[in-house]
């Protein structure tokens, strides 16, 4: 009895210690006291609960869950359901947390709050929205602002990921969190300018809120603003202001925020800006997307987008195996998604395997008919790149849901015209017009749609352009029937009938308006003063003064321009007949004998050192009496025949040229500082 009394007294003291430490927030010390109590009574339910709470407060969620699982007989789901679900939630075992909450016999307010968080992480936004509405309606405590913030976050997620138009919740945007969530919802709707204004307001509220605390530094404020600035940069990127967005993204990265999710998103967005350029920077940024815990911070669509960009970056950096591996993994995760197949096809095209790429796309189109249209458009593009325009047209015409679209009709007609297949082009027009006729007949019997009429007009113009007037007549008659006041269509119809049925053309010409009704009221002065009449006005300018008198009299005599005399060579001799071949290149003249190579006037340095070559002038054949002069001597009146070796005057050197050259060389020698 005395031992039991002593143990009870010790336990009471320990419980007092646990209570005091709990109130002070010293859970590490409280845990020590709880462990001592459990040594006295290992199955004490209250002590076990306290131990679990202390471990949770210290962040030891795995150990706390271990305590719960090892004492299942004592700690039943009714007793410890919230703590167990919370540990599973913090350990990112979201599905297990949901089961634990749903299996609880009593749904407490704490479990409902956690239930909303779990549904948000599971991206079940409709259920999450209903849960938070119920909580706000049935709760009145100091956490109402936090619940409204969570509610606005759910609405923003719906707008962003599910493209649901958010309803007005009537929340007063008094905090920067509410403003931020409202901006995200506007981004999801594509209202970028309004979203930017909301983010600027959120930034202002955040600065005001944090500046009130004297312990908060400017760095702390910038760290808190990082997520707002990141969203601002995203809006800039969507608006095409990539340079501004890139600058803001890099500023956020320099701050080194602790939110790995934010860093991953920013790094991914920078990679999308870089594309196939600056790949080394992109490879550095990819490391930020691989940080631990990123998969628990981002939505499924965000993670998927990051993986797609990794595959594309591998393709741009010529890592073919890595690209195939990533795209195959993505395809296994989302078999119906287009991007993995398109990335694989792009990689095959880079490897010049176009036929294999087309086959891959065809297999996907057969397996997923719902996405066949986009795949077939890509196939057609590949065929065009290969030069197979006709095959590309066949693929495009197999897309039934796009056959009648004006863009598709225009593309097919252009391609068939390029291939000079006019019959197929007309067939495309006919099928599209028939589709609109059937579609309109099944709905109403009213006037034809503008798209239908524009297709008929384009078909008629095309047929007229290619000489198919008989075929164009039915289209023109249909157009004129729809609008009898259309003079242009009537004129086209008369022109077409004039070659086929002149009598019919005469009958139709009676419907043309008379010349009186076609008289145009033109302001001549306004027309002359217009920008286009400037040149005409100059020609028609009024003559004044002497010019006017000359115009009235004999008229002005045009002055003849004097021709300038041509320049003659400096050593031109009028007594010498010019060479008739002077305009031909030297090589094409009859007296050209080619250059004499290897012959010099003085053979310097050919003998022994110090000796000179004598009699070189005697051996020079050019100085003999029998050789003709190289240029006519001054004063000689002899005529030079066209076949002689005399250089004509145009190519003669000036008399003083050699002496001038020597003087120039001497001047250069005086000014030179170095040797030759």
TrEMBL record:
<dbReference type="GO" id="GO:0005829">
    <property type="term" value="C:cytosol"/>
</dbReference>
<comment type="function">
    <text>Component of the signal recognition particle (SRP) complex, a ribonucleoprotein complex that mediates the cotranslational targeting of secretory and membrane proteins to the endoplasmic reticulum (ER). The SRP complex interacts with the signal sequence in nascent secretory and membrane proteins and directs them to the membrane of the ER. The SRP complex targets the ribosome-nascent chain complex to the SRP receptor (SR), which is anchored in the ER, where SR compaction and GTPase rearrangement drive cotranslational protein translocation into the ER.</text>
</comment>
<keyword id="KW-0963">Cytoplasm</keyword>
<dbReference type="GO" id="GO:0043022">
    <property type="term" value="F:ribosome binding"/>
</dbReference>
<keyword id="KW-0802">TPR repeat</keyword>
<protein>
    <recommendedName>
        <fullName>Signal recognition particle subunit SRP72</fullName>
    </recommendedName>
</protein>
<dbReference type="GO" id="GO:0008312">
    <property type="term" value="F:7S RNA binding"/>
</dbReference>
<keyword id="KW-0175">Coiled coil</keyword>
<dbReference type="InterPro" id="IPR013699">
    <property type="entry name" value="Signal_recog_part_SRP72_RNA-bd"/>
</dbReference>
<keyword id="KW-0832">Ubl conjugation</keyword>
<keyword id="KW-0687">Ribonucleoprotein</keyword>
<feature type="compositionally biased region" description="Low complexity">
    <location>
        <begin position="605"/>
        <end position="639"/>
    </location>
</feature>
<feature type="compositionally biased region" description="Basic residues">
    <location>
        <begin position="558"/>
        <end position="568"/>
    </location>
</feature>
<feature type="compositionally biased region" description="Basic residues">
    <location>
        <begin position="660"/>
        <end position="676"/>
    </location>
</feature>
<dbReference type="Pfam" id="PF13181">
    <property type="entry name" value="TPR_8"/>
</dbReference>
<dbReference type="GO" id="GO:0005786">
    <property type="term" value="C:signal recognition particle, endoplasmic reticulum targeting"/>
</dbReference>
<keyword id="KW-0677">Repeat</keyword>
<keyword id="KW-0733">Signal recognition particle</keyword>
<dbReference type="InterPro" id="IPR026270">
    <property type="entry name" value="SRP72"/>
</dbReference>
<feature type="repeat" description="TPR">
    <location>
        <begin position="226"/>
        <end position="259"/>
    </location>
</feature>
<keyword id="KW-0256">Endoplasmic reticulum</keyword>
<dbReference type="Pfam" id="PF17004">
    <property type="entry name" value="SRP_TPR_like"/>
</dbReference>
<feature type="domain" description="Signal recognition particle SRP72 subunit RNA-binding">
    <location>
        <begin position="538"/>
        <end position="594"/>
    </location>
</feature>
<dbReference type="GO" id="GO:0005783">
    <property type="term" value="C:endoplasmic reticulum"/>
</dbReference>
<keyword id="KW-0007">Acetylation</keyword>
<keyword id="KW-1017">Isopeptide bond</keyword>
<dbReference type="InterPro" id="IPR031545">
    <property type="entry name" value="SRP72_TPR-like"/>
</dbReference>
<dbReference type="Pfam" id="PF08492">
    <property type="entry name" value="SRP72"/>
</dbReference>
<dbReference type="InterPro" id="IPR011990">
    <property type="entry name" value="TPR-like_helical_dom_sf"/>
</dbReference>
<feature type="coiled-coil region">
    <location>
        <begin position="94"/>
        <end position="149"/>
    </location>
</feature>
<dbReference type="GO" id="GO:0006614">
    <property type="term" value="P:SRP-dependent cotranslational protein targeting to membrane"/>
</dbReference>
<keyword id="KW-0597">Phosphoprotein</keyword>
<feature type="region of interest" description="Disordered">
    <location>
        <begin position="539"/>
        <end position="676"/>
    </location>
</feature>
<comment type="similarity">
    <text>Belongs to the SRP72 family.</text>
</comment>
<dbReference type="InterPro" id="IPR019734">
    <property type="entry name" value="TPR_rpt"/>
</dbReference>
<feature type="compositionally biased region" description="Basic and acidic residues">
    <location>
        <begin position="570"/>
        <end position="591"/>
    </location>
</feature>
């Amino acid at each position: 009895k005395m031992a039991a009394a002593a143990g009870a007294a010790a336990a009471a003291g320990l419980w007092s210690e646990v209570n005091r430490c709990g109130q002070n927030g010293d859970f590490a010390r409280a845990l020590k006291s709880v462990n001592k109590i459990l040594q006295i009574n290992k199955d004490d339910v209250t002590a076990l609960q306290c131990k679990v709470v202390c471990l949770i407060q210290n962040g030891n969620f795995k150990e706390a869950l271990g305590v719960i699982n090892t004492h299942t007989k004592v700690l039943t789901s009714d007793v410890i359901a919230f703590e167990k679900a919370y540990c599973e939630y913090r350990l990112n075992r979201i599905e297990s947390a949901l089961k634990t909450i749903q299996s609880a016999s009593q749904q407490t307010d704490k479990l409902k709050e956690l239930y909303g968080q779990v549904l948000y992480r599971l991206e079940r936004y409709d259920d999450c929205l209903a849960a938070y509405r119920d909580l706000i309606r049935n709760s009145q405590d100091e956490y109402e602002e936090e619940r409204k913030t969570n509610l606005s976050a759910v609405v923003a997620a719906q707008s962003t990921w599910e493209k649901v138009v958010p309803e007005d919740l009537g929340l007063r945007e008094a905090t920067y969190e509410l403003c931020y969530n409202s901006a995200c919802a506007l981004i999801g709707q594509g209202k970028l300018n309004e979203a930017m204004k909301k983010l600027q307001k959120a930034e202002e509220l955040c600065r005001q809120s944090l500046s009130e605390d004297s312990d908060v530094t400017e760095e702390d404020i910038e760290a808190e603003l990082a997520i707002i600035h990141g969203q601002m940069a995203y809006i800039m990127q969507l608006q095409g202001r990539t340079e501004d967005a890139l600058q803001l993204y890099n500023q956020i990265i320099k701050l080194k925020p602790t939110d790995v999710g934010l860093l991953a998103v920013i790094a991914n967005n920078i990679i999308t800006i870089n594309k196939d350029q600056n790949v080394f920077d992109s490879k550095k940024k990819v490391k930020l997307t691989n940080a631990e815990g990123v998969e628990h911070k981002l939505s499924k669509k965000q993670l998927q987008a990051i993986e797609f960009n990794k595959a594309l970056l591998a393709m741009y950096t010529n890592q073919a195996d890595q690209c195939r591996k990533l795209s195959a993994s993505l395809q296994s995760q989302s078999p119906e998604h287009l991007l993995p197949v398109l990335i694989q096809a792009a990689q095959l095209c880079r490897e010049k395997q176009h036929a294999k790429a087309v086959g891959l796309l065809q297999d996907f189109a057969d397996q997923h008919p719902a996405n066949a249209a986009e795949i077939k458009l890509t196939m057609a593009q590949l065929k065009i790149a290969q030069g197979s325009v006709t095959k590309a047209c066949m693929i495009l015409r197999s897309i039934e849901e796009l056959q009648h679209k004006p863009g598709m009709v225009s593309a097919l007609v252009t391609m068939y015209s390029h291939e000079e297949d006019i019959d197929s082009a007309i067939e495309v027009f006919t099928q599209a017009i028939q589709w609109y006729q059937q579609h309109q007949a099944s709905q109403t019997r009213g006037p034809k749609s503008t798209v239908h009429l524009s297709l008929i007009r384009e078909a008629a113009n095309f047929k007229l352009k290619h000489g198919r007037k008989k075929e164009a007549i039915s289209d023109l008659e249909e157009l004129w029937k729809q609008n009898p006041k259309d003079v242009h269509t009537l004129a086209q119809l008369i022109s077409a009938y004039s070659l086929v049925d002149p009598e019919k053309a005469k009958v139709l010409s009676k419907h043309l308006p008379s010349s009186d009704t076609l008289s145009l009221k033109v302001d001549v002065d306004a027309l002359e003063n217009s920008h286009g009449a400037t040149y005409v006005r100059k020609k028609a300018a009024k003559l004044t003064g002497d010019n006017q008198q000359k115009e009235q009299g004999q008229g002005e005599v045009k002055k003849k321009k004097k021709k300038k005399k041509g320049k003659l060579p400096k050593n031109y001799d009028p007594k010498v007949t010019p060479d008739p071949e002077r305009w031909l290149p030297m090589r094409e003249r009859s007296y050209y004998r080619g250059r004499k190579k290897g012959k010099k006037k003085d053979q310097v340095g050919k003998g022994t050192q110090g000796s000179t070559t004598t009699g070189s002038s005697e051996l020079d054949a050019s100085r003999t009496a029998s050789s003709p002069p190289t240029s006519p001597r001054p004063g000689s009146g002899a005529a030079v025949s066209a076949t002689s070796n005399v250089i004509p005057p145009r190519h003669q050197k000036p008399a003083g040229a050699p002496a001038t050259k020597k003087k120039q060389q001497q001047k250069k020698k005086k000014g030179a500082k170095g040797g030759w």
